[in-house]
Amino acid sequence: MSLWKKFKEFYNASAENRIGFYNFLAFLVIPILGMTILYVLVRIFWIKA
Predict the structure, then answer these.
(1) Coil, strand or helix: which one is 1?
(2) 12 neighbors 21 (Cβ within 8 angstroms)
(3) What is the model's pLDDT at position 48?
(4) Where in the chain are the domains?
(5) Number of CB atoms found within 10 A of residue 10's CB
(6) Is the pLDDT of residue 1 over 90?
(7) Phi, psi dihedrals of residue 14, rounded to the nearest 5°
(8) How far is it, in rounded angstroms, from Cα 27 to Cα 37?
(9) CA–CA separation, 5 vs 16, rounded Å?
């Protein structure tokens, strides 16, 4: 079974699993991506060191 199918079964199993997944995205994945993009933009355009 592929990883995608396992994830889809887990996601569709209950509402609590979906809420947990959204919490994971909201508090870990999105802030890390946002801070990384912000860091890169600041290093490129702001700080001319």
Answers:
(1) coil
(2) no
(3) 66
(4) 3-45
(5) 13
(6) no
(7) -160, 165
(8) 16
(9) 18
Cα distances (angstroms) measured from residue 35 to each of 19, 40, 42: 23, 9, 10
CA dist 23 and 29 (Å) reads 9
Token digits of residue 13: 């199993």
Residue 22 tokens, joined: 């959204």
pLDDT one-digit tens code per residue, 9-47? 999 999 999 999 999 999 999 999 999 999 999 999 987
Q: How confident is the model at residue 49 (pLDDT cuts 50, 70, 90)?
A: low
The Cα diameter of the chain in Å comes to 51
- Residue from 1, 22, 2 nearest 11 by CA: 22
Amino acid at the residue 28: L
The predicted model gives 4-11 an average pLDDT of 93
